[in-house]
Amino acid sequence: MTAPVNGSARGRAPEGYDKYAFEPFAVTVDLAVLTLRAGTLHVLLVERGHEPYAGRWALPGGFVLPDESAERAARRELAEETGLSDVSGLHLEQLRTYSEPDRDPRMRVVSVAFAALLPHAPEPHGGGDAAQAQWLRYNALGPLAFDHDRILADAHDRVGAKLEYSCIATAFCPPEFTLGELRQVYETVWGTALDPPNFRRKVLATPGFVEPVPGAARLTGGRGKPAALYRAGTADTLHPPLLRPTTSVSPASPPSSPSPSSPTPSSPSQSPPSPSSPEGRPA
Amino acid sequence: MTAPVNGSARGRAPEGYDKYAFEPFAVTVDLAVLTLRAGTLHVLLVERGHEPYAGRWALPGGFVLPDESAERAARRELAEETGLSDVSGLHLEQLRTYSEPDRDPRMRVVSVAFAALLPHAPEPHGGGDAAQAQWLRYNALGPLAFDHDRILADAHDRVGAKLEYSCIATAFCPPEFTLGELRQVYETVWGTALDPPNFRRKVLATPGFVEPVPGAARLTGGRGKPAALYRAGTADTLHPPLLRPTTSVSPASPPSSPSPSSPTPSSPSQSPPSPSSPEGRPA
DNA sequence: ACAAAAGTGTTAGCTGTACACCCATGG
DNA sequence: CCATGGGTGTACAGCTAACACTTTTGT
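YS: structure for the whole thing
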């Protein structure tokens, strides 16, 4: 049901029932804003200036206003926090809703969490207010405020899982990018090295994943042969999926990371690997 | 942020701010309770007795109470609606949260949707109240109340996707089941026929998916050779995944259903195939 | 005896993986 | 001219898909 049909109110479903009959719930959004800076995963965090958790880092977010959906609220907050003008094209994904009664000691706060993926990282808004916002390395985080550790870990899991079977990797890339940059997205989020030739073939074999920039455009990231440029395609799903390596070891096997690039996808204060989260294709 | 740090309230984050400063939000849960009856997918629905949408079928659900999480509320509602005594072992999965401001004409209702998977279908509670609850065939539904069509379609997508890479199929089966019954879960939800020998091998090759019931137990579903019985294993992920057939046709290709069993997985009044939903591994 | 479902075996074709190799550029 | 990264080719392992075939029951 959508409204007044629950255990006690069942069947009495009034027309204009008392809106204030129940203890009020605050509905907020929390954003896990992820980007790649210098080849490592970064998260946008704000420093809390007040109790509870004064001085701790927390995910940006805020109240859902009376006339907007959670998605709209998330996009508005994203624009405010990052200072970006057009947030409309950015990838925003609803993670899940966190509703434990004691997650905020002050009152009942139900929070709809989102993951946002940004191409390049503009310096955060640093709005005139007290709270400072900053990009921090995902791998070097202390415990966050509230249950934001768990939310962030869930966001990382979800993004990692979606890389396997969707095209969201391009959401981390600028409008034009090389296949090497695209591969770095996978390697950074997964914390594993990928075989460049095979990665290239996989991506190009998927119809709408990327499309070449026709002009013999090229660009260099330093030394080496100039790479061709690509734009994000129209497809949003990957067939067949691009599975993580290290996979297929069925029995127990801790996250042995034979990756030479990133040390380990160690989450900040990673709550359990969240096999219980409502998504997150393990692998 | 979890509470008072949003655009306008940023930085002022008071200790005991006015709980009633905002228009109140009602927080509810909606349940898409799925089960298999006679080889077809069924959904638990309640008939609305009042406006809006009087006479229409709707998903069961209700308010989240002040001291419980959405998950707890969902499980409580599930117990109430199905009349089952121990709902603790049943598979419950948070889908996503629906928060469009106009989704309920009476007031602002934010609803956390869940999908529940039941093994066998007890006749619904049919509690003494006015609203009657009933199992209805998923393929023969008229438009539901509110945005419940979309929620139900999202639930179906999610369950279909999770069958590919998780072991939730056993959640539809009784404690002991045959591999034929397990295969029927896949065939019914996906609307496609699977090759029994290959399905068998896939399942048995996955370590923790199912485990044989040691006693030379067997059971018959009618004619044919008696089948061995299995119990659900401890694993919750499938490696490698059990992908849907009809897959791998990359370009446009409407849901051509070459399935001899189910006619088509046609959703009730299926909103767009929801490539936009926050999960749902297409295929 | 026949139909139906369980279960075993076998094989052709595809895909992923690993790795060798060539190309173009900066230092 | 060497290191570095882009890009191509190729061969082997493993898996999937398709289907033939045997087993065991009910009618």
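YS: worth flagging: Residues 3-17, 247-283 of chain B have pLDDT under 50 and may be disordered.
IM: good catch. Also Residues 178-180, 196-197, 200-201, 220-228 of chain B lie near DNA strand C (CB under 10 Å from a C1').
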